[in-house]
């Protein structure tokens, strides 16, 4: 009893218990952060719009202006963001198509503005897109260093696809 | 390590670890650096283990004093009984 190894074992188990506890506290401290992110998404141009293999396909150029700095706390590892086009069809109440995504590794990169054409193809399941109103939504997933991952979004509505293929 | 030393070592270990954890958390939260918190706490664990795990002389200040072996002298051990006859396997035992 109470040998060198016994004391080492007691110290290691106790220190790991405390480590788990302070990680829990760090995760809990995120609750005191009230983020106020701002996002602006604009459709700048419809590059082309056609029907391929029976499905509507669009290429858009859009701008993303976002300030997500307030989402970062001391317990944030990184933030995953993606822009999705969302619209309703007779068959599905909600269609979500991811157009662009990115990983924000630090607070310094959290305020950005960029102009891009869609990184991933915007293809409908069918031919519902002519004259279709749609939303552009910026989703984000906050990945903390310890604790639970959480997600939120900002919806920008009032966009409309052209009435004819071009 | 004697009895008092064991108690001291255990208490010292718990107090040091908890206070290092508190210090690390508060510093990390104020500075806003998770990494700093982990570094301070890791340093605390290393220091604590250096302080309380080896058998330092300050854990041996209350040595146990045993009673004089009077009782043993008063009742000397009986002589070893003679081995019973017919045990051939006894050579195998060691």
From TrEMBL, chain A:
How does the entry describe its membrane topology?
Answer: Single-pass type II membrane protein
> Which terms does the UniProt entry file under GO BP?
protein targeting to ER; signal peptide processing
Gene Ontology CC? signal peptidase complex
What residue range is the signal peptide?
A: 1-20
Q: Name one Pfam family in it.
A: SPC22
Q: Which domain of life is it from?
A: Eukaryota
Q: Where in the cell is it found?
A: Endoplasmic reticulum membrane
Concerning InterPro entries, the annotation shows:
SPC3 (IPR007653)
Keyword terms: Endoplasmic reticulum, Membrane, Signal, Signal-anchor, Transmembrane, Transmembrane helix
What's this chain's function?
A: Essential component of the signal peptidase complex (SPC) which catalyzes the cleavage of N-terminal signal sequences from nascent proteins as they are translocated into the lumen of the endoplasmic reticulum. Essential for the SPC catalytic activity, possibly by stabilizing and positioning the active center of the complex close to the lumenal surface.
The entry's family comment says:
Belongs to the SPCS3 family.
Q: What is this protein called?
A: Signal peptidase complex subunit 3
Record organism: Kalanchoe fedtschenkoi
UniProtKB/TrEMBL annotation, chain B:
CC per GO annotation: signal peptidase complex
Gene Ontology BP terms: protein targeting to ER; signal peptide processing
Against InterPro entries, the record matches this protein to: Spc1/SPCS1 (IPR009542)
**Pfam families cross-referenced by the UniProt entry:** SPC12
Q: Which residues cross the membrane?
A: 12-31, 38-59
Indicate how the chain sits in the lipid bilayer: Multi-pass membrane protein
**Subcellular location per the Swiss-Prot or TrEMBL entry:** Endoplasmic reticulum membrane
Chain positions covered by the region annotation Disordered: 73-94
Q: Which domain of life is it from?
A: Eukaryota
Q: Which UniProt keywords apply?
A: Endoplasmic reticulum, Membrane, Transmembrane, Transmembrane helix
Give the function comment from the record: Component of the signal peptidase complex (SPC) which catalyzes the cleavage of N-terminal signal sequences from nascent proteins as they are translocated into the lumen of the endoplasmic reticulum. Dispensable for SPC enzymatic activity.
Q: Which family does it belong to?
A: Belongs to the SPCS1 family.
Q: What is this protein called?
A: Signal peptidase complex subunit 1
| Protein species of origin | Kalanchoe fedtschenkoi (Lavender scallops)
């Amino acid at each position: 009893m109470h040998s060198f190894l016994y004391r080492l074992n007691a110290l290691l188990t106790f220190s790991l218990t405390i480590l788990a506890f302070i990680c829990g506290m760090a995760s809990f401290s995120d609750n005191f952060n009230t983020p106020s992110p701002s996002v602006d998404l604009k459709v700048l141009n419809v590059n082309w719009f056609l029907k391929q293999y029976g499905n509507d396909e669009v290429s858009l150029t859009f701008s993303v202006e976002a300030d997500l700095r307030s989402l970062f706390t001391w317990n944030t590892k990184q933030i995953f963001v993606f822009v999705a086009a969302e619209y309703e069809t007779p068959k599905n109440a909600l269609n979500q198509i991811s157009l662009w995504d990115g990983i924000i590794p630090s607070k310094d990169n959290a305020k950005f503005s960029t102009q891009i054409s869609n990184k991933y193809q915007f293809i409908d399941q069918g031919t519902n897109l002519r004259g279709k109103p749609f939303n552009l939504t910026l989703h984000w997933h906050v990945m903390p260093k310890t604790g639970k991952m959480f997600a939120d979004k900002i919806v920008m509505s009032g966009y409309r696809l052209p009435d004819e293929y071009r | 390590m004697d009895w008092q030393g064991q108690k001291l070592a255990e208490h010292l270990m718990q107090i040091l670890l908890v206070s290092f954890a508190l210090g690390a958390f508060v510093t990390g939260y104020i500075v806003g650096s998770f990494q700093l918190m982990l570094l301070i706490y890791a340093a605390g664990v290393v220091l604590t283990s250096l302080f309380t795990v080896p058998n330092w002389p300050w854990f041996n200040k209350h040595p146990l004093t045993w009673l004089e072996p009077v009782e043993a002298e008063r009742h000397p051990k009986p002589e070893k009984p003679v081995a019973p006859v017919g045990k051939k396997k006894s050579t195998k035992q060691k």
